[in-house]
Write a structure and sequence with these properties.
mainly alpha, Glycolipid transfer protein, GLTP
């Protein structure tokens, strides 16, 4: 947490910090630091971007509190598994495959479900960021969120989750305020837009791995309550 605050103090946005942590190389890094990045795993990367997503939601206040709590619970589940054996559970594919073989993948508290919902939350965020960059200023953040929600999370939400979303939708801030929160200090919109594009390109292989292993075992269409 202290490191994150230090980076934010340097004018780096949450998205810039996430982008640098997920990148295989960063300007100014030595060979040893770059080798450490090469050792990252898809499980660690999923946790990394999910934690940054939590920080972004924290900045936005109570707007999407239910989504934030859901992400936090799923992050904790994967962290607990990774703490048991970091090397064994280095990839999302290994985790899902093991639970399928054990017959536990569809259980409510399974790590497979955690991976599924974290990937969906990231996909929602991806759609939201893309729409922020590619729509006119006349489109409100509420409209953009509604589009992203309909395209990613809504098909898999039951009535409880859908009702919670409708309540949260009433608390969504103005578009300009949200963008300012995402940009952080000392950053121009052009730089922010560039960071978003780079981050989304880095995230794509991660989402594709999760999607592939879940679809392989017919787990990609599991719904919530």
């Amino acid at each position: 947490m202290e490191v994150r605050r230090e980076e934010m103090g340097k004018g780096k946005s949450e998205l810039r910090i996430a982008m640098e942590e997920l990148s295989l190389t960063c300007p100014g890094e030595g060979e040893e630091q770059q080798q450490q990045r090469q050792k990252r795993s898809s499980t660690m990367d999923l946790l990394c971007v999910s934690k940054h997503l939590i920080h972004v939601l924290d900045e936005a206040g109570p707007t999407l509190l239910v989504l934030r709590q859901d992400i936090q619970q799923n992050v904790q589940r994967l962290q607990d598994l990774l703490a048991r054996d970091t090397s064994k559970y280095a990839t999302l594919t290994v985790i899902v495959t093991e639970e399928v073989e054990e017959g536990t993948s569809k259980k409510v508290n399974s790590c497979t479900r955690a991976i599924l919902w974290l990937a969906r939350s990231i996909n929602f965020s991806q759609h939201l960021l893309e729409r922020l960059l590619n729509t006119s200023d006349q489109l409100s953040l509420e409209e953009i969120v509604e589009e992203a929600y309909a395209a990613t999370l809504k098909p898999w939400h039951g009535w409880i989750s859908s009702a919670a979303y409708r309540v949260a939708q009433k608390l969504i801030p103005e578009r300009e305020i949200f963008i300012a929160l995402l940009m952080g200090n000392c950053q121009q919109f052009e730089d922010f837009a560039g960071d978003v594009k780079v981050l989304l390109s880095i995230l794509q292989p991660l989402l594709e791995e999760a999607k592939a292993v879940l679809a392989k075992h017919n787990l990609d269409k599991l719904k919530s309550t």
